[in-house]
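Need residues for this backbone.
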């Protein structure tokens, strides 16, 4: 079982990746002071909220640990400044990148606060995806991944000579799926990287790719074990994925708009 200190350290590590919005009075008294420098109560509230987002319980013990971490970080930061580390060019550049990342996140959050994603938007995108998948088939796929084209061609020869696909996957594949005979489970062709997806879409049940396919992870031999009509999930089942899809699309459009308006040389 992890100690409260290790839990609070984990919150510190991840807080910058998913900073929740916290409503808290800026006039609240500081939680502590280090050599005359106050530590704002808002900092503790943000970290506690981040911990809750990660599945932790907001308990007095967690808050005490987070407070101790904030104090320790302030002590370390003051010592770093005393040694002049805040003037180091590499540190200054890293700090600038971090500031830009935080500013970008703040801008996106503000944009969506003013332009919220509505339920109608989600339902419209869901219907668009349903329409696109009206005649879709998903495939039960297995594959063998080799490091070189020569190795893949040799494996293909062994398959044609009668060697079982599953056995070759277990003995030859460099992918983790080799442990289970190369099985990838049921997938839509569009869920595969383009070279594989294009090939699988045109393969029949029981077919093996006629030639090795080059992909970023190696040379692949693919087998379509079975095919079936794709059962579209309900809106409620798909809602988290639809929300992510709509958010990413609208965020990308907003970024593209700003890039178009910017003078870039």
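Answer:
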């Amino acid at each position: 079982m992890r100690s409260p200190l290790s839990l609070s350290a984990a919150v510190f590590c991840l807080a910058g990746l998913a900073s929740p919005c916290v409503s808290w009075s800026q006039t609240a008294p500081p939680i502590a002071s280090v050599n005359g420098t106050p530590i704002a109560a808002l900092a503790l509230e943000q970290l506690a909220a981040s911990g809750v987002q990660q599945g932790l319980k907001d308990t007095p013990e967690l808050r005490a640990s987070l407070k101790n971490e904030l104090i320790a970080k302030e002590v370390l930061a003051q010592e770093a400044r005393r040694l002049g580390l805040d003037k180091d060019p590499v540190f200054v550049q890293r700090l600038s990148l971090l500031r830009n990342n935080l500013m970008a996140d703040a801008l996106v959050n503000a944009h969506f606060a003013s332009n919220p994603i509505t339920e109608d938007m989600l339902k419209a995108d869901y219907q668009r995806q349903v329409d696109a998948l009206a005649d879709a088939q998903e495939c039960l796929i297995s594959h063998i991944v080799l490091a070189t084209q020569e190795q893949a061609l040799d494996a293909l020869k062994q398959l044609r000579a009668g060697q079982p696909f599953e056995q070759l996957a277990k003995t030859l594949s460099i992918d983790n799926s080799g442990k289970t005979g190369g099985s990838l489970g049921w997938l839509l062709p569009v869920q595969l990287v383009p070279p594989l997806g294009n090939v699988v879409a045109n393969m029949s049940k029981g077919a093996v790719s006629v030639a090795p396919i080059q992909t970023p992870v190696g040379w692949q031999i693919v087998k379509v074990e079975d095919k079936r009509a794709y059962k579209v999930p309900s809106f409620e089942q798909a809602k988290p994925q639809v929300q992510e899809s709509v958010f990413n699309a609208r965020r990308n459009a907003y970024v593209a708009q700003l890039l178009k308006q910017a003078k870039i040389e």
